[in-house]
């Protein structure tokens, strides 16, 4: 029995069976074309996003029942499997909640396509997919219009990153640029206030106030912002910690900064 990979939903689904060749990831075209999403929020949000082209959905019976109850008719026919089949694809430590989806990457806008009054994030060589995913999730909560990152020194929007983003990838586009400093220069010419987060800065974040348009620039933990990135920021700001610990995870710093620059709007 075959199942449709995309298009209108049908009635046929695969029944559970042992893992084997048919439960290996199936690339589409050039190697790496497809992204893998797993877990309830990433998969459910992707299924609801008409702009996401879907290829293959594996679901356990319990997960399928929840999808049917909360989403209704699906855009793709699922293959019903046992949890072990998804474990075989992702490994036993992945919290997949009975859902595994192969899909096309979402198209990213160009820098010129971003609104002139936007609030943006820019990531300066943040490579940990857990951190980037958590930043995407927070950005979606605060209505960030886009996250600027580079093709090199950044994780791809699949697997762990997508799981950590908890569906946020469907709502906040990733803007891939060749050179971050050049992108910041271009945004500055368009009137964006470029705010670099730096624990050693002289300016407290809470003195800046709400800004639009603005781009918040975040550096990797430990290394912080690179010098050229710092040189292309209008202001460097620090979170004014009061306790004994003066540094936090970059995704938490992103959440605090987004809140601080949104209060009063």
UniProtKB/TrEMBL annotation:
Protein's name according to its UniProt entry: 23S rRNA (Guanosine(2251)-2'-O)-methyltransferase RlmB
Renumbered residue ranges of the record's region Disordered: 1-30
InterPro entries: Alpha/beta_knot_MTases, Ribosomal_eL30-like_sf, rRNA_MeTrfase_TrmH, SpoU_MeTrfase, SpoU_subst-bd, tRNA_m1G_MTases_N
Protein origin, superkingdom: Bacteria
Keywords, sorted A to Z: Methyltransferase, Transferase
Domain RNA 2-O ribose methyltransferase substrate binding: 36-109
UniProt keyword Methyltransferase present: yes
CDD domains associated with the record: SpoU-like_RlmB (cd18103)
Pfam families xrefs: SpoU_methylase, SpoU_sub_bind
NCBIfam families assigned to the protein according to its UniProt record, in alphabetical order: rRNA_methyl_3
Gene3D superfamilies: 3.30.1330.30, 3.40.1280.10
Biased segments, Low complexity type: 9-20
Keyword Transferase on entry: yes
């Amino acid at each position: 029995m075959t199942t449709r990979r995309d298009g209108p939903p049908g009635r046929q689904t695969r029944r559970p069976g042992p893992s084997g060749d048919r439960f290996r990831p199936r690339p589409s075209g050039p190697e790496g074309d497809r992204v893998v999403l797993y877990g309830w929020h990433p998969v459910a949000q992707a299924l609801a996003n008409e702009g996401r082209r879907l290829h293959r959905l594996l679901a356990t019976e319990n997960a399928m029942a929840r999808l049917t109850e909360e989403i209704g008719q699906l855009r793709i026919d699922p293959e019903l499997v046992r949890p072990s089949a998804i474990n075989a694809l992702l490994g036993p430590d992945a919290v997949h909640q009975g859902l595994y989806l192969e899909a096309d990457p979402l198209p990213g806008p160009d820098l010129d396509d971003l609104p002139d009054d936007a609030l943006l994030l820019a990531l300066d060589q943040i490579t940990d997919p857990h951190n980037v995913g958590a930043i995407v999730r927070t950005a979606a909560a605060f209505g960030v219009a886009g996250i600027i990152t580079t093709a090199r020194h950044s994780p791809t929007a699949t697997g762990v990153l997508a799981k950590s983003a908890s569906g946020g990838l469907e709502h906040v586009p990733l803007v891939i640029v060749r050179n971050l400093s050049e992108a910041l220069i271009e945004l500055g010419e368009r009137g964006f206030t470029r705010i670099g987060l730096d624990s050693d800065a002289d300016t407290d974040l809470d003195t800046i106030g709400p800004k639009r348009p603005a781009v918040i620039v975040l550096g990797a933990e430990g290394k912080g912002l690179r010098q050229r990135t710092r040189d292309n920021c209008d202001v460097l700001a620090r979170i004014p910690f009061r306790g004994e610990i003066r540094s936090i995870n970059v995704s938490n710093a992103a959440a605090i900064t987004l809140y601080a620059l949104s209060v009063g709007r």
